[in-house]
């Protein structure tokens, strides 16, 4: 009974977002929209970018309000929040007896995040937006990040 009520509450809270996505992204799994798979991919990517922007903005505001440095907020909330789906996927695959896929997922997703998540914006900044410029890195949290990475390995 309690689980049914929680599902209803979750559905009520997420319905506006689901409706917005339903109206703006074509469902290419249906025969009518099959040819629009690239549009579905591009619109989904744009929505993810928008959601990511708002997530970072909200975490920054919450950290500023509570007096928590951006470095700590980024390491704990943003990094953990983006790693949970990868962790769940790895757990599901590992339970199916495919441990090598679980390990490759964890390593591959981090490599992708670093190479694409940092490389593309920095490449655009130095090649297209401000040609010949350099990217200044705020390295306050670098020691914490490296220590956490080595500890997790």
TrEMBL record:
GO MF term set: calcium channel activity; calcium, potassium:sodium antiporter activity; symporter activity
InterPro entries for the chain: K/Na/Ca-exchanger, Na_Ca_Ex, NaCa_Exmemb, NCX_ion-bd_dom_sf
Domain Sodium/calcium exchanger membrane region: 38-150
Predominant cellular place of this UniProt entry's protein: membrane
Domain of life from the UniProt record: Eukaryota
The keyword Transmembrane is annotated on this UniProt entry: yes
Entry membrane topology: Multi-pass membrane protein
TM segment ranges: 12-29, 36-59, 71-94
UniProt xrefs under Pfam families: Na_Ca_ex
Alphabetical UniProt keywords: Antiport, Calcium, Calcium transport, Ion transport, Membrane, Potassium, Potassium transport, Signal, Sodium, Sodium transport, Symport, Transmembrane, Transmembrane helix, Transport
One cellular component (GO) term of this entry: plasma membrane
One GO BP: intracellular calcium ion homeostasis
Annotated compartments: Membrane
Catalytic activity of the protein: Ca(2+)(out) + K(+)(out) + 4 Na(+)(in) = Ca(2+)(in) + K(+)(in) + 4 Na(+)(out)
Keyword field contains DNA-binding: no
PANTHER family according to UniProt: SODIUM/POTASSIUM/CALCIUM EXCHANGER (PTHR10846), SODIUM_POTASSIUM_CALCIUM EXCHANGER 4 (PTHR10846:SF21)
Family note: Belongs to the Ca(2+):cation antiporter (CaCA) (TC 2.A.19) family. SLC24A subfamily.
Protein name stated in the entry: NCKX4 protein
């Amino acid at each position: 009974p309690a689980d049914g009520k929680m599902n209803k509450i979750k559905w009520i809270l997420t319905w506006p977002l689901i409706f917005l996505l339903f109206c703006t992204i074509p469902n290419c799994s249906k025969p009518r929209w099959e040819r629009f798979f690239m549009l579905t991919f591009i619109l989904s990517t744009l929505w993810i970018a928008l959601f990511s922007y708002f997530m970072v903005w909200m975490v920054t505001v919450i950290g500023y309000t509570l007096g928590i440095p951006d470095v700590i907020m980024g390491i704990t909330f943003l990094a953990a929040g983006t790693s949970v789906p990868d962790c769940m996927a790895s757990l599901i695959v590992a339970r199916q007896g495919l441990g090598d896929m679980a390990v490759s997922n964890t390593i591959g997703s981090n490599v992708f995040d670093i190479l694409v998540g940092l490389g593309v914006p920095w490449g655009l900044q130095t090649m297209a937006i401000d040609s010949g410029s350099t990217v200044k890195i705020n390295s306050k949290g670098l020691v914490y990040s490296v220590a956490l990475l080595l500890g997790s390995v």
